[in-house]
Amino acid sequence: MNSEAFFLKIPQSVCVSGMRIETLQPWVEMLASRLLMVSENVCKHPDFHALYPTNKMRQISVDRLREFALDVYRSSNQGGRKVFVIYEADRLNAAAANALLKTLEEPTENSSIFLVTVRPYDLLPTLRSRCWWISLPEMEEEKEADALQVWLEDFKAQVTRYVVQKIPFHPMKLYGLLYRLQAYLSSSTECLSDSQELLSEEEMLAKKAGLEKRKLQHIFQAIELGLSTVARKINSQEVWECYPQWIATLERCYQRTEVNFGAIPALEAFFLPFCRPLS
Fold first, then answer.
1. Above 80 in pLDDT, residue 198?
2. CATH superfamily of 10-135
């Protein structure tokens, strides 16, 4: 099947899933530009409609969904196809998801509705069943992955010195590690697409919160991986006695970020015990 035939055969309702919303968004916008036959920023096209979560809670309410869905049944502004994209569709609350179900059950001609999500199984099964599903492979940004990997190697070296040589973290080393993690988190907004200028303040807040949350998860996963690697490498009774305490503390610190406790203070609380002599 050639590319033009592919675009002509795209169903009216499509779920696009993958590992990173910042990878999925430009792909969907590329697809939308082909459907609407435009070469400029598709987000500014009058027949492109997007819906995003809002605020730090990152929810999509039923009122916003119903307002968004009204355009599905309106005539196209330019007399052709219309494209509708719901970003982070898993953030639809229950009422909004049910309202969307009614829209998908009664599709209109020349309309394409895309549900974009990194958590497809959080969607209602009835929503998933009414969509054609596209799953994109993970395409990590090498520069970002390398930055966290370099940080992880430095962290493992510090933990190894702490356990083997009984040398506590120096405060300057500790805050150096935290500063680099802060820079990693702050870089989360650099990958926002050109559509950011069209977002409302509440939508932008939600988008930034979502990106930062995903990067924070990467950080905690990297720390857990680093601790596990050090424990296996040293393989001493002393380190295996410490390891469960480290993981339990790490989990508690991550849970604090889930209730809007600052990411860096939570990480600082995890690192501070390493500044004391190993008992």
1. no
2. P-loop containing nucleotide triphosphate hydrolases (3.40.50.300)
